[in-house]
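Translate sequence into structure tokens.
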Amino acid sequence: MKLNQLIEHHDQGTAFAPGFVWTEVSGVGDVAVYPRSLNRIGGLLLFIGKEGVRKSLYLLNHGSEADATKPFQGQTILEFRSSDDSYLIRCPMNNHNARAIRDHFEFTRPRLIGLSDSFGFGCRIGQSNPGHIRSLEGSRFKPVLAQQSIRELQRTGRTPEEVLDATTWAVLQEGYRDGFGADADHLKTEQDIDLMVRAGFTMFTIDPSAYVVNDAATKSKEQIELAAAKLPWKDLRDTLASCLARYVEKPIVFGRELTISATRREILNGLVKYGGVIAHASKLYHYLKAKYPSHPAEFELSVDETDSPTTPFEHYLVVNELKRLGVSLVSVAPRFIGEFEKGIDYKGDIESFKKEYLKHVLIANALGPYKISIHSGSDKFQVYAAIGSLKRGHVHVKTAGTSYLEALRVTAAKEPALFREILDFCRGIYEEEKKTYHVSAELSRVKEAASYSDAEVLNLFEDNDARQVLHVTFGKVLTTTAAGGGFRFKDRILHCLNEYEETWCAFLEKHFRRHLDPFA
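Result follows.
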């Protein structure tokens, strides 16, 4: 198809399928044009295209619209000598041009998601979102397409701007106009907040895990009383006596389905375990609100990284105290019963989980409402089915590592020699890299790569041990450099994904429909 024909179809309102169309561009040759990316700024037409494995933004301009190209960086590659002196500009897909796109097209900017059920599509490699977007067709979930934690940024060497820019290009490429969020995940400091606000993120997940006192329940009577007295009561704008008076043996009723009450000891346990959490979360919340009053922001509180599950009373205590301190939350991530290990399905009694989850929903509906957030949500298919069957409350699911594993699955399918090299590298560093993750994989159950056939290599993605070995080593795989300079694996992985982009998108679409369909 010639470019002018493709433009004519676009202007006539043709509904294009996802993906690219080989398009003959006079003077350039065949370009893989993504027709859903076609947009206009006045008389200026722009689209994303690919020559070889390199994507670019193309501007087709007319002389009378020269000012429209000024916000963009690019190089004129073709001039059409005619009455209107049209010319074609090829622009790099960089931060400058991503900002220009966001300035012109509202749908490419992140927005607040609110109480809509939502799904966090974390991407550690920067090219997953076209597949993520395609998986959403027919789903009621709103996507959080730009999602990255501070730890992930550090381990991958990416910047928040790179994360948001990659999302902007994906949304433009796929013509996705239904809105998306941008989650600055696991923020621990004011400096973390500054970093993510400057980049343009709109959802802020506060991680106060460093302030959790995990051994509160094991302290003696004297120890727990002393620890409670030493809490930062000035920051909490309260006293121990007045706090206890609000809760001791006072039943809290959530309709007909749930009533909770707590003894003095249970309240002290909750205060000591989470008192520092409440103070720190309030501090970060009010810091952002005071320093960036006009910045669109919604907040999630993450208390999932604790040694013991969050009891219904602890959930109530934490959020009720935050409300007293003027903190408004869009979602809360409790620590649930059972095991939420990285990259594999839920471990535990799913019926018990379902009953406990409903209690958290009832509390969230009463205190908010706000969403219950599922962290380490990748591949928790039993959990999705359980929550979907309840059809109660509001939910946010947060994933990240599973998209990276799908990238490695494409590598294994298309370039098995490269994947074998990666697998052996991961085996060599797993014991060290697993230390900051909740996993149970045994390295002895993942053999050296040479012992697997090509078919067996693909089957590793159905094996829990192999998935976790690959999952937690992502940072070193993506940042380790080669002896001669450059990255040892990253560039080759990206080249493979670019060359086989439609396979990559198909893998992601299939995989995430398994995540989303149980909620239908």
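Note: The CA atoms of residues 54 and 494 lie 11 Å apart.
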